[in-house]
Amino acid sequence: MPDYPNPFLNKTYLPLLVVEDSDVDFEVLMRSLKKLSFQPQIYRVEDGDEALDFLFHQGQYTDNKKTPRPALILLDLNLPGTDGREVIVQLKQNRSLKMIPIIVFTTSSNPQDVEFCYQYGANSYMLKPLETQAFNDSVNILLAYWLETAILPSSII
């Protein structure tokens, strides 16, 4: 991938919710973000149930100041308990949350998973590359598009 200027330097971004059960995958993501000098508020939950609690301000997430509405949701698909598919279905049926872009970031290349996610309202479906540089490049492209190029609905901003 060509070297482009880093669009993330010295900018403030809205919160990002990462729904990821793998500590290793989350750590790789955090290293990629650090390498890009991307410093948003990042909130991590480890399964679909916790994601729904965070977004609906339930359970341990009732304080809106500690659990702000994310500008973007980065969602692993295969999660323990309530999986990513069910998270998509529930969020996209909710009037106040359906506008938040959901980017499925997963290892599953199953065409049925891809079809399901788009059918129920996911905004993007990306495969997690296994090679470090390819992973970094994917994260860079994802963030550049969703936080620099795309115009998010005013209800999120």
Description:
It is globular, with a radius of gyration of 15 Å. The protein has a five-stranded parallel sheet. With 157 residues, it is an alpha/beta fold. The chain has five helices and five strands.
Question: Which structural class matches the secondary elements?
Answer: alpha/beta
Shape estimate: globular
Discrete helix count: 5
**Cα gyration radius (Å):** 15 Å
Note the beta-strand portion. 5-15%
Low-confidence stretches: 6-11
The helix/strand order is EHEHEHEHEH
- Give the strand order, joined by hyphens, for the main sheet: 2-1-3-4-5
| Number of E-state strands | 5
Query: Biggest sheet, in brief?
Result: 5 strands, parallel
Mean pLDDT over all positions: 88
Helix content: 25-40%
Distance between the termini: 31 Å
Features:
single chain, 157 residues, five-stranded parallel sheet, globular
Topology:
Layout: E1 16-19, H1 23-35, E2 42-45, H2 48-56, E3 72-75, H3 84-92, E4 102-106, H4 111-119, E5 124-127, H5 132-149
Parallel strand pairs: 1-2, 1-3, 3-4, 4-5
